[in-house]
Amino acid sequence: MDPIKIGWLGSALDGPGGGYDKIHRLAFDEATEAGLLDRPVEFVLHGEHGLPHGSAKNATDGFRYLVDEGCIAVAGAYSSDNAITVGPLANELHVPLISWCGTDRLQGDYCFRLGNGDCGGDAALVVAWLKRQGHTRVAWLLDLGMLGLRRWLQSAPDCSGQIADVMFVYVIGRSPLKHFRDRALVVRAADKNERQVR
C-alpha cells in the first residue's frame, strides 16, 4: 500500500530528526497507534528559504515542489509573510496548508491557521498588560515590512485609548537581533533627553 505523503515546508527548522521534525511527526505517530490511519505516512521535508532572509518565490516554489512530490497536505509557511504568499497557491492547487502564522490574511478553504499569536490581537493584549502594570509611555519597535506596519495600524487605536504617551515608532531591519540593541539605546537616549527638557 502506498503511503500518504505529508510535506514539511520549512517546518523541520533543525533538520530531519530534530526537535521540530519530531513535534510534527508526533500527531501522526499517535494517530497510527490509535488505528486512525489505514496506511503508512511518509514525510517529505523541503527547506522553505522564504522571507525574511530568502524570497517569497522560494516559499511558493517549495510548496509546488511538495505538491509535485505527491503530498496531500503541507505544514509550513510559518512566517506571516510566507503564509500570505503560499496561501493563495494552496487554494488554487486544492492542497491544504497548515500554518501557525500570525496573520489573519491566511484565508480560504485550504488554509488552516493554528493559534500561535495574532498580528492584530497581540497588540491589544500587550497594551492592556502595559496599562495594568502602570506604564503610561510606550516605545514601539516594529519590523520592517507590511506586517510591521499592519501591527502598528492595529495597535495604535489600542494605545491611544489606554496609553497616555506613545513615544516613538522605530523600524528595525529584517535581522532584528542585529538592530534591536542599537535601536533600544537610541530610544533610551531620546527618553532621557525628553525628560530633561520637561
Can you describe what's shown?
- The chain is α/β, with parallel strands linked by helices.
- 47% of the residues lie in helices and 19% in strands.
- It is built from six helices and seven strands.
- It has helices at 19-33, 56-68, 80-93, 121-132, 146-162, 176-197, and strands at residues 4-9, 41-46, 73-76, 97-99, 111-113, 137-143, 165-172.
- The strands form two sheets. It has a five-stranded parallel beta sheet with strand order 2-1-3-4-5, with helices on both faces. The protein has a two-stranded parallel sheet with strand order 6-7.
- α2 (56-68) runs parallel beside α3 (80-93).
Largest sheet: 5 strands, parallel
Tell me which oligomeric state these chains represent.
Answer: single chain
In what order do the strands lie side by side in the largest sheet?
A: 2-1-3-4-5
The overall strand count is 7
What global shape is seen?
A: elongated
Structural class of the secondary structure composition? alpha/beta
Helix coverage percent: 40-55%
Strand content: 15-25%
Q: Low-confidence spans: pLDDT under 50, at least 5 residues?
A: none
Number of helices: 6
Question: How much is the radius of gyration in Å?
Answer: 21 Å
Instruction: State the separation between the terminal residues, measured CA to CA.
Output: 76 Å
Whole-number mean pLDDT: 79
Order of helices and strands: EHEHEHEEHEHEH
